[in-house]
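Example 4.3 (complexes with small molecules)
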Amino acid sequence: MEDVILTNGIVYAETGTIDKGYIIIADGRISDIGEGSPSSKSAGRIIDVQGNVISPGFIDMHTHGIMDVDFMESSYEETEKALYAYARYGVTRVVSTLLSNPISSIVEQGKLIRNVKQKSPIGCLIHGVHVEGPWLAPRCRGGHAAKYLKVPNKEDVESILTQIGDVVKTVTYAPELENALWLTEQLNKMGIIPVFGHTEATYEEAERAIMAGARHVTHMYDTTLGYKENPDEALVMMPGMETAVLYFDQVSIELIGCPVHVPKPFFKFIAKVKPRDKTIIVTDSLVGTGMPDGTILTYKDGRKVYVENGVLRMIDSDPAVHGNLTGSAVTMNVALRRLAEYAELSKPDAIRWGSINPATTLGIQEETGSLKVGKYADVTVMNDNFDIILTLLQGETVFKKDEEDE
Ligand SMILES: [Zn+2]
Ligand SMILES: [Zn+2]
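Answer. The structure with zinc ion bound is encoded below.
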């Protein structure tokens, strides 16, 4: 394969920003990064990025789908189509997230996603599967159907671990459920990351699970109840799971890049209180993502929703229900742009939340997540406003703006 040279860009390298620099890609990996112009000895296809930003590709570790595709229901071809749609927004890795469903359906869909990962030309954009539920707290279920929720039992857990344990990378569950500590240990043993979410755990329940290996929180401040009031002492607050996940440095925290799901001050707060490498932005995006405002979608169960400014809202004849929030439709580039604004971060610092930080939590930081010699050339080129111009996945062009949009 011919070398590719991206020149004349602002390079967000792992070691710092290079104001006018280049990167060279050989055999799908970054072979050189430098300031100025590459030496005349370098040969290959030259792409002049015209002063735009050369950034690490984004990693979205919590997304259900995009462009009318839901990973829980998609066919092989639809899943592939979704991966190309992610690349339009600078994404070079996703953890395909499966919503609460019967265990057998989760297993079947996990196998399909593994098949796409192994066989499709764009399959390496999938890092793996995130099983979100069905082991969630009923009161905190959010968009998960109550009828599928259950406590983890041996048969279900074994069914998932033995059949799709290789492709499952993260499991979100509520640590206060019966058998949750046992589940944490089983996941940890398999190298699957135990993740808190949809939970109202006490401090003690959360601490026990963290000691057993839990080390990430799914969409903090959305369906996570942080504190409780002491029933025996007036107006005394009891620490809950929030105190535990903020206290223990090994736990990373993810926020949905959406001010409707996460009120703005939380972005600044998490940026200040968590270690620099434990802060993560995700989209938690659903089927309507990437589609224009006003697009109407019909779910399998007949419910209708519409897209509005990065969220999905209900369509219903009952005015009390019509317009209710049903999920996120934000894209990674927009989520990162908002993060930079809300948390008052520099662009390279904001981008860490969607690149090296999720890579570190997922344990793939030696392969991807930053621009460094030896790593995969998972790269996106964007303008100053986070609009994506070009995306390379392991050195291959998977999105180019000029061809498609101009
Ligand atoms: Zn959720
Ligand atoms: Zn989700």
